[in-house]
């Protein structure tokens, strides 16, 4: 049963991600999608969750003069953090293959930050999940990139796709976070906001 107070608010999801849209629908939330183009640059000294926190807040900035009293804006950003390096979205197959080679046989962190903004307050939370890939062969990496074209995903992979099914040995933390949204965290925070 959804919290009755949620019905009084307009939840605005500022994300073009079909995976995030699907999660919101599956959680039974009424929401609208609003998109704005944001230059996703961040200071080079930021590390790990600092990067995704910064970018989630930056995305909210674009909406700051547009929110009504009953609006809750949700912006988010996902970072794949590996050996002190952020693996962002791959621009092409060469970059994607390079990223997957780095992740092969190793643990990495998937960090998703979610920023909840109303006219009166802003809350930024993040979820960190540790993920371990098996040793991936060149053939497996190239097959995945050719058939799934994972250029819209941090770290150049989707855990819910073929590479996740055949390549991920262990996961420590929220699964939905790796897909792109820590759903339990989002739901609980929304409930708290409307109490």
TrEMBL record:
Name the UniProt record assigns to this protein: dTTP/UTP pyrophosphatase
Instruction: Name the enzyme group at the top EC level.
Output: hydrolase
Per the record, the similarity remark reads: Belongs to the Maf family. YhdE subfamily.
Cleavable signal peptide:
none
Q: Name one GO cellular component term.
A: cytoplasm
Q: Which Pfam families match?
A: Maf (PF02545)
- Please write the reaction equations for the catalytic activity of this protein: UTP + H2O = UMP + diphosphate + H(+); dTTP + H2O = dTMP + diphosphate + H(+)
Q: Which InterPro entries match?
A: ITPase-like_fam (IPR029001), Maf-like (IPR003697)
Which SUPFAM superfamilies does its entry note? Answer: ITPase-like
Per the entry, what this protein does is:
Nucleoside triphosphate pyrophosphatase that hydrolyzes dTTP and UTP. May have a dual role in cell division arrest and in preventing the incorporation of modified nucleotides into cellular nucleic acids.
Q: Which domain of life is it from?
A: Bacteria
Q: Name one GO molecular function term.
A: UTP diphosphatase activity
Site annotation Important for substrate specificity: residues? 19, 78, 160
What Enzyme Commission number(s) appear in the record? 3.6.1.9
List membrane-spanning regions. Answer: none
Record keywords: Cytoplasm, Hydrolase, Nucleotide metabolism
Q: Which CDD domains match?
A: Maf
Q: Where in the cell is it found?
A: Cytoplasm
Q: Which organism is it from?
A: Maribacter hydrothermalis
Cofactor needs:
a divalent metal cation
What GO biological process, any one, is recorded here?
A: nucleotide metabolic process
Q: Does the keyword Hydrolase apply?
A: yes
Q: Where is the active site?
A: 77
């Amino acid at each position: 049963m959804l919290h009755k107070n949620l019905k009084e608010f307009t939840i605005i999801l500022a994300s073009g991600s079909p995976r995030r849209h699907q999660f919101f629908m599956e959680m039974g939330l009424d929401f609208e999608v609003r998109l704005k183009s944001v230059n996703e640059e961040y200071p080079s000294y930021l590390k790990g969750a600092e990067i995704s926190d910064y970018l989630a807040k930056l995305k909210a900035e674009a909406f700051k003069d547009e929110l009504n009293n009953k609006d809750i804006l949700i912006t988010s950003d996902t970072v794949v953090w590996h050996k002190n390096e952020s693996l962002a979205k791959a621009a092409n197959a060469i970059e994607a293959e390079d990223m997957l080679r780095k992740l092969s046989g190793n643990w990495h962190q998937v960090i998703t930050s979610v920023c909840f903004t109303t006219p009166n307050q802003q809350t930024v939370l993040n979820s960190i999940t540790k993920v371990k890939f098996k040793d991936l062969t060149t053939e497996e990496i190239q097959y995945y990139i050719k058939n799934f074209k994972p250029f819209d995903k941090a770290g150049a992979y989707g855990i819910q796709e073929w590479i996740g099914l055949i390549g991920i040995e262990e996961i420590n933390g929220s699964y939905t976070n790796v897909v792109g949204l820590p759903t339990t965290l989002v739901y609980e925070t929304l409930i708290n906001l409307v109490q």
